[in-house]
Amino acid sequence: MSKRMLLIVSPFLAIVAVLVWLAIVSIDILTAGRAYVEGESLWSKNQKEAVFHLLRFAETKSESDFLSYRKAIMVPLGFQRARFELEKSPPDYSAVRAGFLEGGTHPDDIPGVISLYQRFHRVSYMKSVLDIWKTGDDFLARLDKAAQELHAFHQSGRVDPSGLGLILNRIIQVNEEMRPWQNRFSTTLGEATRWIRSTLFLVIVTVAGTLVPIGIFLTQRMVSRVDRAERELKELKLGQEYAVKLAYHASHDQLTNLVNRPEFENRLRLALHTAANQGRQHVVMYLDLDQFKIVNDTCGHAAGDQLLRQVGALLKQQVREGDSLARLGGDEFGVLLESCPMHEAIRIADELQKCIADFRFVSEGRSFTIGASIGVVHIADGTLTLTDVLGAADAACYMAKEKGRNRVQFYRPHDSEVFLRRGEMEWVSRLQRALQEGRFVLHAQEIHSIGNQSPRDNHYELLVRMLDEHNKIVPPMAFIPAAERYNMMPLIDQWVIQDAFAKINSLGSKGAAGGTYAINISGTSIGDERFLEFVREQFRRYVMRPGTICFELTETAAIANFDKAARFFGELKSLGCLFSLDDFGAGMSSFGYLKHLPVDFLKIDGSFVKDVAHDAVDLAMVRAINDVGHVMGKKTIGEAVDGEMGLAALREIGVDFAQGHWLSPPGPFLEQASGGMPRTTTDSGPVPQKDWAIPATVLNTTT
Prior knowledge:
Blueprint: H1 3-60, H2 63-86, H3 93-102, H4 110-120, H5 124-156, H6 161-237, H7 239-251, H8 261-278, E1 282-289, H9 292-299, H10 301-316, E2 324-329, E3 332-337, H11 342-358, E4 360-363, E5 366-369, E6 372-379, H12 386-402, E7 408-410, H13 416-437, E8 440-446, E9 448-449, E10 459-467, E11 473-474, H14 476-485, H15 489-506, E12 516-520, H16 523-526, H17 529-541, E13 549-554, H18 555-560, H19 562-573, E14 578-584, E15 601-604, H20 606-609, H21 616-631, E16 635-638, H22 644-653, E17 657-658, E18 667-668, H23 669-675
Parallel strand pairs: 6-7, 10-12, 12-13, 13-14, 14-15, 15-16, 16-17
Antiparallel strand pairs: 1-3, 1-6, 2-3, 4-5, 8-10, 8-18, 9-17, 10-11
Helix pairs in contact: 1-2, 1-4, 1-5, 1-6, 2-3, 2-5, 5-6, 9-10, 12-13, 13-14, 15-17
C-alpha cells in the first residue's frame, strides 16, 4: 500500500480498531453477565440440594447425607465469600477467585465476573441484583445454623421428637421463604443482563454513528491535505515553467495567442520613450476587419473566433521578426513596427491590406471576402503620448472605413477629416459624463394651430439640451452627430422619455390631463425591443390620457428602418400614442409608405417652409405634401416659420399647424408648459437649476 493511500485510509483503520476493541469489551461483558446467570442457577440448584440432603439426613441420620448437604451448601457460601472479598478495598483477588471456583464458576469466566462487578456494582440494575443477593445471606446463615443443630442433635443420641420437629420446621420455613426470593433474584438478574446487552448495543451504535462521520471528515481532510501537499510539491517542481506560462497568458490574447492590449500598450510606452530619448522612429498601425460582423452574424460566434485566429496567423506571417502584433479587442488588431522608417512601414501596411483582401474565409460551405481598414501613425519624436498615438491610429482607421473600407489611411496631425473624427471621440466621453452627472435638460417649443380645425391647446415639441461643465447650453448639433455615430442615442432617448413623463405628470391638469407633447426618438432606438419595453414601463408608471404623448421620427430614419418603425408605431398606438414624421420632404419623399405607417402628423421640412412665400417650387412642394397628408387623414405642421408672409402662405395652403423661432422660441420645458415665454427669449445661456433633469444613473441601459 502506498504512503498516500495509507494516509487516506488511516482514519477508517482507527475507527475499525476502536469498533473491534468495543466489540471485544462488549463480548467480555456479555460473557460475564452470562456467568452471573449461570452462577445464580448454580446457587439456587445447590441451595435446594442442600435442603434435600439435610431433610434426608434428619430421616436417615447418615453422615454421608450430611456431607452431601455440606457439599451442596458450599456453592452458595463460595459465592458469598467471593462477594464479601470484592466489597473490601482492596480485595484479595486470590480469595475472590477461590470463592467463585468453590461456587462452580468456570475459571475462564472469573476475570469477567470480577470486572463486571467492579464496573457496574453501583449501576441501578446491578445494584438491585447485589442487594437481593445480600439478603440471601440471612437465609444461608439460618439454614446452616439449623443444619448444625440437626447434626448436633443426632450426634448427641437424644430421642426427642418435639425438639427434632422444631429444627425441621425451621429448615422447611427457611426453604419456603427462599423460594420467592430466588424468583425475584432470578428475574432481577435477567433484567440486569438484558439492560447490559441493550446498553452495549446502544453504545456500539452511537460510537459507530459518531466515528463514521468523523472518519469521513478526517479522510476528506486528509485527502485535502495530501492533495494540497502534492499540489504544492508539483508547483515547486514546475514553478519556473508555471511562472513563464502565467506571464505569457497575462500578456497574450487567449483566442489568437497574439499580444494583448495591455502588453501592446506597455511596448508602445517603451517605444515612445526611445523615440523621445534616442531619436528612434517607430510606426503604429490600427487594423479593423471590414466584414467581421457579417461572418459572426451569419455563421455564429464559433466561426467568428475561427476567423480571428486565421487572420491573426496570416498577419503574423507579414510582420518582421521583433515587431509586435496584438489583438486589441473584438476584430481590431494593432501592429508596432519598432525602428522602422516610413517607406518600410508603407510597404508593410500595403502587404497587410493586400493579404487580408486576398484571403477567403470558408465556413459551413460558404466563402467570405474579408477586408481591413488600416490606420497608420508615424512616431518620429517624443511629443505624442500613448493616448495620442492610439487615438490618432483609431481616427485614421475610421477615416479609412469612411473612404470606402479595405484601404490604408496615414495619420497627419492637421488633416481636417481625422481632426473631426478625434473631436467626435472626445464628445463620447463628454456625453458619458453628462449622462452620469445629469447634465441634460428638456426645452420645449410651442406648436401653434393655424388651420380651420379646433385649436389644440398645449401642443409642444420637446427638445433635449446638454449643459457643459459651466452650466452653459451646448447646441444639439454639437453632440448629436457623435451620439448617433457611437450608438449613444438610445441612452439619451431613454433619458428624454423618462424626464418628459415625470415632468408632464407633475403638471397635473396642464400636463397629463391636457395637451400634446412631441418627443423626438432616433432611428437606432425604434428597433430595440428593450427600448420598447422601457417605453411601456413609463406608461405603467405614469397614467397618460390618449393623445398626450406624440413620438417624432425623421422621414429618413423611418424609411431606413421601415419594418421596425411600422412595428414600433403599431405597438405604441395601442397605448394611445400619436406619431409625427419629422423633416418630411427632405429625404426620399415617397408618399407610398405613408399608407403603411400610422402617423398622425407630417412635419413639412423647414427648407421648403422658410421660402414658401417667395419660391414657387417651395410653395408647390408644401401644397403637395399638405394635400396628400390631408387626403390620408394626417395633420400637417410647417416648420421654421420665420415671418408673417410665410405664416400667411401656410394658412392659405391649409396647413394645420406652424412652428418656428419667430412664433415661439424654445425654452425650459416647465416654464413653457406652465404659461409660455415671451418671444424675446432665446435658447441659450445658463439654465435654471430647477429644470435640471433626472441623472442618467437611474436609467436602464438598452445598449
